[in-house]
Specification:
This protein is α+β, with helices and mostly antiparallel strands and 174 residues long. Helix content is 24%, strand content 22%. The chain has a single domain, classed as Alpha-Beta Complex (Cathepsin B, Chain A).
Length: 174
């Protein structure tokens, strides 16, 4: 099996974002089943409008990263939630966690956590960095108006953190 890399993650995320995946929108039935089935206690109705973090997890597993849907580091929730990704990254010393937009140059395949993008709350969105464009990033994201896509976002106060999973990462190998 080919090793998981952030480069491969970015390629897959770009392709997955352009499928596009979507919840129940414009009279079209949701096509989120492949994403939702990775979370045993979740269903399409519950996921509708709340699947950005699950999209990131789906892309990571498709790229070959060996991550359970609820690692031990996730105390509050599983990886279908943005907070779960932060708990996971902070709790696993093998993963780089860079708080805020300053002090870290985002790289292709990094995971980006956002605050206050759609709602005035922390941990409200997440995506996968495809390109660093100096003052902006291009990211593959799920659940932008309930549809996946490729979005250009400013590198500003909305960036909560960057998460950098090492190439070849397997959860239980230490």
């Amino acid at each position: 099996m080919e090793n998981a890399t952030r480069e491969k993650l970015a390629r897959l995320a770009r392709n997955m974002a352009q499928v596009p995946f979507h919840g129940d929108v414009d009279g079209m039935a949701s096509n989120l089943a492949p994403i939702v089935r990775l979370f045993p206690a979740w269903n399409l109705k519950e996921a509708d409008g709340l699947w950005c973090a699950a999209f990131v997890y789906y892309c990571c597993t498709a790229a070959g990263f060996g991550i359970p849907y609820r690692p031990d580091e996730c105390k509050t929730c599983h990886l279908a939630a943005c907070l779960g990704w932060e708990e996971f990254a902070v709790g696993d010393r093998r993963i780089e966690y860079h708080k805020g937009p300053e002090g870290c140059v985002p790289e292709t395949g990094d995971i980006v956590l956002y605050d206050r993008v759609f709602e005035n709350k922390e941990h409200d969105h997440i995506g996968i960095v495809l390109e660093n464009r100096n003052r902006t990033i291009l990211a593959a994201e799920g659940n932008v108006n309930n549809i996946s896509g490729i979005i250009e976002r400013s590198i500003d106060e909305h960036i909560r953190a960057y998460i950098r999973i090492p190439d070849g990462y397997r959860y239980r190998e230490e």
